[in-house]
């Protein structure tokens, strides 16, 4: 026992194991979307799709893990073996993030293989660890077991909060191989998973290990399959059944059939639920990508990483759960409002939809500072006039206008090419304000589709003019800015460099071995791209992120409130409406709703082709519609009391071979429903 209490010492090893495993999982997942975008160089839609495909697989595999544990290896061995698979996945994933290991194809292969192994590892042990912890208690220690699950839940959230703070720091603040250190950000979670396995094995001599006792999910599937087969083979002369599951009575007990009916009634309510998870799980994908285009500075000293903001959900849920249990729900009850579990869930869905309405408002404002990339058959162009007077352009329609000396271009102009690449000629005429002399050139350059360019006009020989075409970098850097320099003496544009967001009041510049000067570059802000003409001007090619990351807080507050009302209430409702031996079936069904929710995001991200704000609106509207359907289904649902089954079926054997179906079950069902209604009203 632990410190003389009724808590087994073995649960300390299980709680530490769960903390380390959750740190490992959420830490890796926190940086995953940015890894796809910045390291593998995938577009945002593909990155979102693969992220949610991985999340979906993580919630399909628990069913497999439960079958292995209950039917073959037992919980202890299943946790050991699948944790080894888990660690191998982390190691493979970390190796794939090392730039010197192979080419880009090798990085993709290793990354996908690692994620698949991680999904089987984390999903396989998910249904086993908590249940294994519960097995350590004696039957009479009900209160201690309940408190253990609260501690277990706290360990999960503590691991989530810490990992989503630490791993983005390892990614962004540590430089390895000349860039963000994704190898370290994935390697530390791998080490934590090794620690988790070592701690779990360390307590092996203290565990109570129950042997595999068969999986009730298989029994349920067999019973349903037998009933469907018998019904399909029945004739019109056979005795009618009040429910299609009653066709299984000749092989399975009436109690088992009644339990399955109760479970199916709850699973029917699960059908609309994936839509909630489709919105909820976008915190790590679409919302993180939205954060990369926002200003993340709190003053001059504290800067948040775009993948750190996810920790708000785990942090807020630790705050909101007791607030809702102690204050909100009792207060609503005192106001005379009968807020049943299903009503709470419907409210949670509406609040989650409001979270996406808030995300839409943020997205609309965020996109104002984003340069929309050129599509197929077109390119973007801006013009720098470095002459000492006005230059008039002609020959290309969007550029037919006068441009003042050193004028900062307000925006990129969109040129239609009609093909993948094309030579275009721009006529430029210059009038010297001091001498009155003129210069004229025809500048012919090759423009390629889906690129952004700067056309630079600068002095040549005395009184002359030259042109140059430079490719621009318009993508916003997640936590920095892009800077390039043009030396006024020879007008050669340097490559664009990624620079950390900061103020640069004194930058040393050497234009020749013996000539140096100090430049004040000012604040180089998040997401901006700058061009500096040394000795003259600073131009802002891409506007800095002007929407502060704090504007994401309301959507995180709303989605967390929705989770408290939907997820926690949903699990409590499901467990209250199913017999004790069927809770694993409902857990499997609940996890599958999360898996299917992620599949919905995958389909929309790859197939809808909508602008991001429109996609947020679509998800919000879909969830509102689904919540309406769920509310109608909930209205017709009748609460039952599964504990009454013990009284009603005391003499019912596990397998009924006599095929008797006398219809006596209906009064029992009515009694269950009546007792359930009384409990619900109470």
UniProtKB/TrEMBL annotation:
SUPFAM superfamilies, per the entry: MFS general substrate transporter
Pfam families the record matches: PTR2 (PF00854)
Entry GO terms, CC: membrane
Species the sequence originates in: Muraenolepis orangiensis
Topology with respect to the bilayer: Multi-pass membrane protein
Region listing for Disordered, in residue ranges: 656-682
Compartments, record wording: Membrane
Primary location: membrane
InterPro entries noted in UniProt: MFS_trans_sf, POT_fam, PTR2_symporter_CS, SLC15A2
Domain of life: Eukaryota
Name of the protein: Solute carrier family 15 member 2
UniProt GO MF annotations: oligopeptide transmembrane transporter activity; symporter activity
Single GO biological process annotation from the record: protein transport
UniProt keywords, alphabetically: Membrane, Peptide transport, Protein transport, Symport, Transmembrane, Transmembrane helix, Transport
């Amino acid at each position: 026992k632990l410190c003389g209490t009724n808590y087994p010492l073995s649960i300390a090893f299980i709680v530490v194991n769960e903390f380390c495993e959750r740190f490992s999982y959420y830490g890796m997942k926190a940086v995953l979307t940015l890894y796809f975008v910045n390291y593998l160089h995938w577009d945002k839609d593909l990155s979102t799709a693969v992220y949610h495909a991985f999340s979906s697989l993580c919630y399909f595999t628990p069913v497999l893990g439960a079958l292995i544990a209950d039917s073959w290896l037992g919980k202890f061995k299943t946790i050991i073996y699948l944790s080894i698979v888990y660690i191998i996945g982390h190691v493979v994933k970390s190796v794939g993030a090392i730039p010197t290991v192979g080419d880009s194809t090798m990085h993709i292969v290793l990354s996908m293989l690692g994620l698949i192994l991680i999904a089987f590892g984390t999903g396989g042990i998910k249904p086993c660890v908590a249940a294994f912890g519960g097995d350590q208690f004696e039957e009479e220690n009900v209160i201690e077991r309940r408190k253990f699950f609260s501690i277990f839940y706290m360990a999960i959230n503590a691991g989530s909060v810490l990992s989503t703070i630490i791993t983005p720091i390892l990614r962004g603040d540590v430089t390895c191989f000349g860039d963000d250190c994704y190898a370290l950000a994935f390697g530390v979670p791998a080490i934590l998973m090794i620690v988790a396995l070592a701690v779990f094995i360390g307590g092996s001599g203290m565990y109570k290990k129950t042997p595999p006792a068969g999986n009730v999910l298989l029994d349920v599937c067999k019973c349903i399959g037998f009933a469907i087969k018998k019904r399909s083979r029945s004739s019109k002369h056979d005795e009618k059944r009040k429910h299609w599951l009653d066709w299984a009575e000749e092989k399975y007990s009436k109690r088992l059939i009644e339990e399955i009916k109760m479970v199916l009634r709850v699973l029917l309510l699960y059908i609309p639920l994936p839509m909630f998870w489709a919105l909820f799980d976008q915190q790590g994908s679409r919302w993180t990508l939205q954060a990369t285009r926002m200003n993340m500075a709190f003053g001059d000293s504290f800067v948040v990483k775009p993948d750190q903001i996810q920790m708000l959900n785990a942090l807020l849920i630790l705050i909101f759960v007791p607030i809702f249990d102690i204050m909100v729900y009792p207060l609503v009850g005192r106001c005379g409002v009968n807020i049943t579990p299903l009503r709470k869930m419907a409210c949670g869905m509406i609040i989650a939809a409001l979270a996406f309405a808030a995300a839409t408002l943020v997205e609309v404002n965020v996109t104002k500072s984003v340069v929309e990339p050129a599509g197929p058959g077109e390119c973007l162009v801006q013009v720098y006039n470095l002459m000492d007077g006005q230059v008039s352009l002609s020959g290309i329609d969007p550029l037919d206008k006068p441009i003042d000396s050193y004028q900062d271009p307000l925006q990129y102009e969109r040129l239609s090419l009609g093909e993948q690449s094309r030579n275009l000629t721009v006529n430029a005429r210059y009038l010297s304000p001091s001498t009155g002399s003129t210069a004229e050139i025809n500048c012919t350059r090759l423009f390629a589709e889906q690129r952004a360019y700067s056309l630079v006009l600068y002095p040549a020989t005395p009184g002359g003019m030259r042109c140059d075409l430079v490719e621009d970098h318009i993508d916003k850097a997640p936590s920095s800015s892009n800077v390039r320099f043009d030396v006024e003496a020879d007008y050669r544009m340097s490559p664009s460099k990624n620079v950390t967001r900061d103020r640069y009041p004194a930058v040393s510049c050497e234009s020749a071995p013996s000539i140096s000067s100090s430049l004040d570059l000012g604040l180089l802000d998040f997401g901006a791209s700058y061009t500096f003409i040394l000795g003259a001007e600073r131009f802002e090619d891409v506007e800095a992120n002007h929407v502060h990351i704090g504007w994401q807080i309301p959507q995180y507050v709303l989605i967390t409130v929705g989770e408290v009302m939907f997820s926690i209430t949903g699990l409590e409702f499901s467990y209250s409406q199913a017999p004790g031996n069927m809770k694993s079936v409902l857990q499997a069904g609940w996890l599958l709703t999360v898996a299917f929710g992620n599949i919905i995001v995958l389909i929309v991200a790859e197939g809808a082709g909508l602008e991001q704000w429109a996609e947020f609106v679509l998800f919000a509207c879909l969830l509102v519609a689904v919540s309406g359907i769920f509310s109608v289904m909930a209205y017709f649902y009748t609460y039952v009391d599964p504990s009454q089954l013990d009284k009603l079926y005391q003499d019912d054997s596990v397998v009924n071979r006599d095929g008797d179906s006398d219809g006596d079950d209906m009064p029992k069902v009515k009694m269950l429903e009546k007792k359930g209604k009384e409990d619900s009203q109470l």
